[in-house]
């Protein structure tokens, strides 16, 4: 992603690893009292890894992984990268996918080896008419209880396996969040992922406000609701699904490591994808607003 064409960096901001769209951004930067943080790719590395595969009775784990990985190869989601890497690490040869379609916040589908394969939330597969056998429902439950993300894969009318992926906190997230608190900001974790995976990320950061299982199109409404409570809201995100919420927030911050859509929708870009530079930028704005105006 190349944010530079769009953005005007102020000298000091650039030094801090922050690109600011224009001087008017500093006013809202100074006033924010709430900071909404997207989970995957913002607070966590977004480099997920495949932990294990739980096949349904009668399904081969390898076949399920190969079909899912072939399908996910066409997706840009961090979950997709984990699944594709998990397969290639096992020297699997991935085929081609046709009729690929992404349903944001739910999953992906496409035609692989003559089958219509789906991978995503179990509830989404069920809504698409696939039966979810009890051993897979428990695998989903177990993975989520452990703070992980479960991707259910299925074809021919039935869910066939659960692929368990996990994400890790960025080493800088804890520091950044304690700096936000020192600046008087209330941190809120916002994610499309399951509640328990969200809490597993929030707990070590001592974040108590967690809004999980939010569909991409609902993220904007969360920001609007917080603004309705009289809060001045900063939102930090990296994904295509964060763009509308970033635009709605009083201050939208994107990760320089994130998608172009997020960068374009934001007021300020954290060049290195380091959340601590958001705290630095807010501190800088509060300190120097008068000298810049
Ligand atoms: P976040 O808000 O954390 O960035 P998303 O809104 O992108 O999360 O995704 C929410 C959920 O939708 C994921 O946790 C996953 O269950 C499902 N999902 C989204 N994209 C995919 C995909 N490419 N493959 C499998 N599952 C997906
Ligand atoms: Mg994200």
TrEMBL record:
* Localization of this protein: Cell membrane
Protein name per the record: Cation-transporting P-type ATPase B
UniProt lists the family membership as follows: Belongs to the cation transport ATPase (P-type) (TC 3.A.3) family. Type IB subfamily.
Q: What superkingdom does the record give?
A: Bacteria
Complete-protein stretch covered: 423 to 715 of 774
């Amino acid at each position: 992603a190349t944010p530079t064409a769009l953005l005007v960096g102020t000298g000091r901001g650039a030094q801090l690893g922050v690109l600011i769209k224009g001087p008017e951004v500093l006013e809202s930067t100074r006033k924010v009292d709430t900071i909404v943080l997207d989970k995957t790719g913002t607070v966590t590395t977004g480099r997920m890894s495949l932990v294990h595969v739980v096949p349904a009775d009668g399904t081969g784990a390898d076949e399920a992984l190969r079909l899912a990985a072939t399908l996910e190869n066409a997706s840009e989601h961090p979950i997709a990268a984990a699944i594709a890497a998990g397969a290639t690490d096992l020297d699997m040869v991935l085929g081609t996918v046709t009729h690929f379609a992404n349903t944001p916040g739910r999953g992906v589908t496409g035609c692989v080896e003559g089958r219509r394969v789906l991978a995503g939330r179990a509830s989404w597969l069920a809504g698409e008419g696939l039966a979810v056998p009890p051993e897979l429902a428990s695998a989903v439950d177990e993975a989520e209880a452990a703070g992980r993300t479960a991707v259910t894969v299925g074809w021919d009318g039935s869910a066939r396996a659960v692929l368990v992926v996990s994400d890790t906190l960025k080493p800088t997230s804890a520091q950044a969040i304690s700096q936000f608190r020192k600046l008087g900001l209330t941190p809120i974790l916002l994610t499309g992922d399951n509640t328990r995976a969200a809490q597993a990320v929030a707990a070590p950061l001592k974040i108590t406000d967690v809004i999980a299982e939010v569909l991409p199109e609902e993220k904007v409404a969360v920001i609007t609701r917080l603004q309705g409570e009289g809060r001045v809201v900063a939102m930090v995100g990296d994904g295509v699904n964060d763009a509308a919420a970033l635009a709605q927030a009083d201050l939208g911050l994107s990760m320089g490591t994130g998608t172009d859509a997020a960068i374009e929708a934001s007021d300020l870009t954290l060049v290195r994808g380091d959340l601590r530079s958001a705290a630095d930028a807010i501190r800088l704005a509060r300190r120097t607003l008068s000298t810049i105006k």
